[in-house]
Amino acid sequence: MISINSLSVLFGGEPLFSNLNFHISESDRIGLVGKNGSGKSTLLKIIAGVMEPSSGGVGISSERSVGYLPQLIEYRVEESIMEAALSSFKSLLSLERELERVNLELSKVEEWSSAKQMKLIERLHHLTERHSFLQSFNPEAECERVLVGLGFNREEFEHSRKKFSSGWNMRVELAKVLLANPDILLLDEPTNYLDIESIGWLESYLSNFKGATVTVSHDVRFLDNSTNRTVELVAGTLFDYKVSYSKFKELREERVEQQQAALYNQEQKIKSTERFIERFRYKASKASQVQSRIKQLERLERIEVDIREKAKIEARFFSTPKSGRVVLNASQLSFSYGEKPIFSNLNLTLERGDKVAIIGKNGAGKSTLMKLIAGELSPLKGELTLGHNVMVGYYSQNQDELLTKEDTIFESVDKIAVGEVRTKLRDILGAFLFSGDDVEKRVEVLSGGERARLALAKLIVTPNNFLLLDEPTNHMDISSKEALKRSFKEYPGTLLIISHDRQFLDGLVDRIYQFRGGELKEFKGEWIVEEERRATPGQPTQNRSEEISDSYIDREVMKEERRVKAKITKCEESIQEIESRIGEIEHLLSTPTPQMELEPLLKEYEKINSELHLRMEEWEELHSKL
Q1: Which of 102, 353, 381, 522 is buried most deeply by CB count within 10 Å?
Q2: pLDDT at residue 214, rounded to an integer
């Protein structure tokens, strides 16, 4: 479908990547991964045709349509959400014009079964299929289905886009790309502004998408659920694995370990050979052997170890002052924006050392609660108190935007640091991947990921014992998120985190609360997407509660299911042992000897056959419970 041939890109005379070659097939679900700045977004832009490479090229048939979601978007602020979504169907008109053109060309072909005619027939078939698909559903209904799936309320459809944040407008652009139903989807960080429910919906949509997808994402769970091939960009080199991300990570580690072991063995062999050459170089009787070994070294193909990015965040929190046992107590808390209620009668208590997450759809009240705790907003009703000696550090969603653009990286942390920590600022910045002359860069030239890291570094240099973190991993690459997670696990204070990144939360927090219907309740579920509720492109619009995958199943149900599965495994092992013994007895009975006592064998045979029958009934009964 798409061929990337000897692709190279230079920035300021320095290569970003060079001589990249790979192919994208029709059924590929590719996860494009690598650290921030490795060239992932640039590669997507080149494939999408919005940027030219320094050399090499991209081969793609003119018959194939490409849908591209960039990280930075432009849009008409006055158009409504529905108008923007419906604009995706303008392609239907151009498709109809193309159909007319191909039919006209076919009518003018004189030679039957010519190569030109066959090519036109193939083109006509492809266009007809796409035309039939686009006409198979109501455009307004399909727009409604996708917009609701991505978190919009129906009453918002006629609102102009200027009323929505950049994150919500990014969702509109994602909806437009999906509604166009292209042959190839190129998605650059599609989950950055989605909540967990919308991510589940998008995973379901992509699982039923018929074309190829290339996705840049730092959400491991999303990659695992929506890709079957992983392409990694490391130091300008491409590594291609035909598996999803988690499996790729395992295979890459195994491969590197094998390469390192082979390299060690080869180096030992080379040293041994060089010692032989050096020892017997001037001995006539060994001349032929020396020459033979010299030629062996010349012919030897040196083993290379795959390049891996070694730079990663290594943040360590300084000792924080101890707070009282109760860190936060919110009682009967209510808040509204004007006449729009956000939540009411909310209760939440956190104790020292708690690590708690809050999840829920965007707009449910998660960030509002954080701002109330941080003191940026005041509750409409109820009480909110912080415990003894509680010192709050707050990382908001737009924290990176609150940095002073004129400051250098070093100045940003230097002006808030106090005490002993001031002597270790360069070490702290180095832990967040700012080293050497990098610390003199001004904030205004930093990327989104760099600004996020700097904002988190500012939390490290202040002695806070209660951290409020609102989407701290947005714009961070996978290795940085993994390192940050390790740091937060070791944090001695109290954490309250808002995140849609399931992989980041797993193993980090000990409690999860969920906002639903204006209420905050403890969540006792698992990150499960029910297969029977997966969204299918082209399905008629349904009730939203039926349309969006329910990502949560009661934990007790899951525990019972695991217990049943464990019993099934044990039962299957017992059946296997019984069948093995039956086989042995049948073999003995089929080849009797004069010394063989048949009666005990026959009794055992009868007994274990009865046992097998009981175990098979037990196995069937257990399966009926799943």
Answers
A1: 102
A2: 94
